[in-house]
Protein 1
Amino acid sequence: MADGFPADSVPADRPLTDEEFGVLQHYIDAIMERMAADRFTLVVERDFAGLMEFLESVQSPLRNPTFDPSQSDLSRDAFWLRVIDENGTTVACHAERAFEIDSYDELVRSGKLWHRDGMTWGGERVPELTIKKSMDQINGRVTHAGSMWVRPAARKRGLDRKSTRLNSSHVKRSRMPSSA
């Protein structure tokens, strides 16, 4: 694999050129080869109820409401990666979804990054979050990643970094927007 991450060098405001697509695909293939050498298989999933059930089954505290269909409206521009070992056991997951926004700052402050109707507590609306550093310049189509989990026995094998890079690469390759 190259030292740099090819998805970082592609502007978010346009589709990939054929050359950029080829470089990115080569990078994805290199990661997949390393995962295969470690006897891991990658599956791109869109069943977010399945993600929530899986995270609950492993007692993960990382059940991000951004990826919970009971809390958020998930479009076709959302997916999660499932990493499976040679026994068919899920050993890692990581989710990503797109938003069309006027202001990332507003998405965060309102709580709509996490919940379709914003933040509530006991049925009452929670005051907007205070953000110290403005993110108003981030707008348009952006993505948000989360709900990463790696089985303890599979940790320290780079699955967290590989799944993060594969998520970002899948976003770029699929002509989805870039992460904020």
Protein 2
Amino acid sequence: MSKFSNVISLFHGRGIAEKYKISDKFSSTEAWQISLPFNAPPMVFVIHSEVLALNVDFKGFIEAVEPAAIFDMRKAPRLDFISSNRINSFALLDSMFVKYFDVLGRTEFSSSRASEAEFSAFIGDVCSRVKSIGAENQIMIMLFDDSDFYSRCERVLVKNFDLEKISEISLAAFAHGDSKLRM
């Protein structure tokens, strides 16, 4: 019987409770909680290139959300929304410990010519890469410039990640500290 009247002992005898010192945890004066045996899916912020073209404070957004990586799924991966040129953009991302992946450039994948099997293999590889990059509770960013390609990807991404579409208003709110992240 537990010394707490509202706690029911789940571990009878000397087996599991002794092995993992569970009874010591309950008698401790400090707060303690058992971790759940599953992790929440990684959060992926999806941003369409139209939002980036609106002269938003992307650097402030990155500072606010602290993403682990940016996965650029655009056909034309310009970085002028981060800094004046690619070298400065990469230097800024490096200084903020944000990895950048030009996904379509590295894979030479063509969304318009891909068969369903090629698309499935491609998006499966992207999902695996996103999962391998981030630790628990880290945010990833995906950039898109083709709405049809995004719609096709979204059907798979939503099954693997907690997707959040970022509008100009929400990007500005994060950049200026007016919005709180879900934890």
Protein 3
Amino acid sequence: MARELLQSLVAQADGGEDDYQRMRVHYWLAESLLALGDRRNVDAHLTRALSLVRERGYLYFLRVQAREEPSALVHALAHGIETGVVSAALVEAGPAIEAPLLALLGEARGSAGEAIVSLLGEIGGRSSLEELERLGPARRALAPAARTARRHIAERLTRGASRGRRTTPGSRAWCSSDRRSS
């Protein structure tokens, strides 16, 4: 139903002057095609939508989409479509996209590979750290980006571990000890 409605709106959106509507129609059509497993025109629709995002500054739309349902953006990243814009939006999805990014990492080349490694540096956890350690020697082109990403992840994990040991009001350790003394 959504696919048919969006397909009927493509010609109207492309013929009009409203770039924001055009971008949304193409993006949501690509998203619905992906959800239905119909990959024939997905890349064309994503390319059109994401180029409008880049040209017109609609990144806020993509950030919301990344938080709600990042699959179309992950697909675009895997296919090297507007990797800069897509990466900026996917950061909003946070750790929820770590597993799909790790799955793409083995096959990713060029700017898509670098974008995936950078994203993992921003949102990745222990799994990303381990995978990036294995990646270094095997993929020399990505080694510098992987090294930086590993450093970012390690620093974040260290900060998180040190926060977990504090016993300040509001922390889990403080609350549990506070309950015992009451």
Protein 4
Amino acid sequence: MLFNLPKQDKNSKDLSLKYRVYLAPMTSVDVDNYPKPEKATIKQKVLKADEKYNYLDGDARTLVMNVEPGENQFKGAPKVTIIIEGLTPDSLEYVYANAGEDFNMIVERCSDGRKFIMGDPCSGGMRMQYTSIGVLEGGNAGICVEFTGGQCNQPVLFYDAEFDVVADEAPVAPAKAAVQTS
């Protein structure tokens, strides 16, 4: 049986794994009371009271998380590359306003809910810089950003504690169409 089938929402086509990256400026981190890891896991909040994370969403093929070996064999430098898909005034403003800033970062693997934390006081935070704006691999428009931390003996840890996130703003209602169809 045939029936009319309008063009499908692009979200229905994406079956890839998702991730969410939470970012907080290092000025929001409680450096004096940063918790010690237990079994390579941080189990307490790391931000100061009333501080919150912001987030970026994406799919797994646009995130690369690595630890590069340091000059000292016992230390490594965390590095995360993220592609912000799409080029909008908001995404450009976000990148320009935050380039060169240091962040505490939590990466959530949404397939299983596991969280990883990087950018502790030892590493000095994860410094954000953009490496490309415009047409990226695959021909899509977007912004490639890189977060790099300093050398640390535990550059990536699991994260298993509560944390607060800035609430999303209510979406703006779309303008009514000026074109009338009949």
